Amino acid sequence: MELKDLFLAPLFLILIYALAYWLRPKLTNKYTKKHFIPALTVKIIGAICIGLIYQFYYGNGNSVGGDSGNYFRQSRIVVDAFYTDPNLGLKLLFSNGEYDPSTFQYASRILWYTSSTEFFIIKLATFFGILSGSSYSVIAIFFAFISFTGMWAMYLTFLKMYPRLHKEFAIACFFLPSVFFWGSGLLKDSITIGALGWLFYGFYSGLIEKKRIFKSLTLAFVAAYVLYSVKVYILMSFLPPAIFWVFLENSNRIKNVLLRSLAKPVFILVGLGIAYIGGTKLTEGDARYDVDNLAERSKINSVYLSEQVASGSAYSIGTFDGSIGSIIRVAPQAIVVALYRPFLWETRNPVMLLSAIEAFIFLYLTLRFFYRTGFFKTLSLIKSKSILTFCMVFSLVFAFGVGTNSGNFGTLVRYKIPLMPFYLSAIYIMQAHAKRPKKLFRMAVTA
């Protein structure tokens, strides 16, 4: 970060907060109003802290290091091209990694020019860089704001189903340290968790509530495209349980008991079929995520991780030979790693300590609920409420994926944040059903 950040960041913060205060009456009610500004504030604090940590903890103190710094510096190249000749800048912004003689002098300096996922983030950073004169802090603040909009959409979606849990959902969506820290700065994670929130909102509004269908599905499509462009595995993890959720909701609305009993298996089979087709076709031909390559890639990761564990830099979930059967055998370890580790005694630095505290809270809440309610009653509750089915299936599928492939606790902290709001929200919903089942009814929430 540079001297100009000290002047530009406060100016843009004033503009963003002015916009937030103008929007708040339109997007909140008497229960959610008090969470709006604090939720935005922690996102902005997270974005600024990410820059400071990458500059002074991971970097050399002179410039922002890590992926965040690379995105910023490479976006500056595109901004310079735009300032030199707007046509050149636009060519780079709308390019797909192909080289053009007129832009080669700039494209050749962009390390991630041919990497579509990273270049997508560079393009987005470039857009805000043009507006702010390439100020790192301002770009990071805009990333935090985009992430906040998606998280607010996620929050409102949960509230439509359980309005009484506005405090609990606020904690799950906004105030988990790892989520607002890693999901706020100039990183992929900010954009993907924001897009995930909008996708969740679009799915529920368009396919379950069936309100503002065109608008909702358009939002869902745009959010899905962003996830597909940046981190397709999040979309892969979301689609199957989300489609299953939609079919469960629609089958439950059939009032005739006999007809519902006959229709439910059909809904389930069709939903699973669509989910399977979507999950396989999305990644067909992609060397990283093609379903046919997942087992082999996991085997390679396992061998690598086993070597790293010996040096103390990674965790182990056991060994496997790359077959689907062996992956299933290590699934419990992978899920435990993603949801409940690092344990407190495994921490190596302050950032990991925050994650360890969160993981301990997740483990404590889970075990306490199972102990008080009973294992089979808990499973029955999850099965009986389609939103719980969705949240838990998505969380477990995603936990398995990142637990198997993250490799070390440092990357795991970042990779697992998409599941954290859904898992904690599911815990809060189950606790509410156990404590006051008769008071949990749906009512309109003013948005």
Please give the largest β-sheet: none
What is the N-to-C order of secondary-structure elements (H for helix, E for strand)? HHHHHHHHHHHHHHHHHHHH
Unreliable stretches, pLDDT < 50, 5 or more residues? Answer: 302-312, 441-447
What structural class is derived from the secondary structure elements? Answer: mainly alpha
How many distinct helices? Answer: 20
Tally of DSSP β-strands:
0
* Rg over C-alpha atoms, rounded to the nearest angstrom: 22 Å
Measured as a percent range, the helix fraction is: over 70%
Residue-averaged pLDDT: 82
Distance between the termini: 37 Å
Strand percentage lies at under 5%
The best one-word shape is: globular
Number of domains: 2
Walk me through the structure.
The chain has 447 residues and is an all-alpha fold. It has two domains: 3-180, no CATH class; 290-439, no CATH class. Helices cover 76% and strands 0% of the residues. It contains 20 helices and no strands. The protein has helices spanning 3-27, 33-56, 66-84, 86-93, 104-107, 116-132, 136-161, 166-174, 177-182, 188-209, 213-230, 232-252, 257-282, 291-310, 324-340, 350-373, 375-384, 386-405, 409-415, 420-435. Helix 11 runs antiparallel to helix 12 (232-252) and helix 16 runs parallel beside helix 20 (420-435). The longest helix has 26 residues, at 136-161. The chain starts with a helix and ends in a 12-residue tail after the last helix.
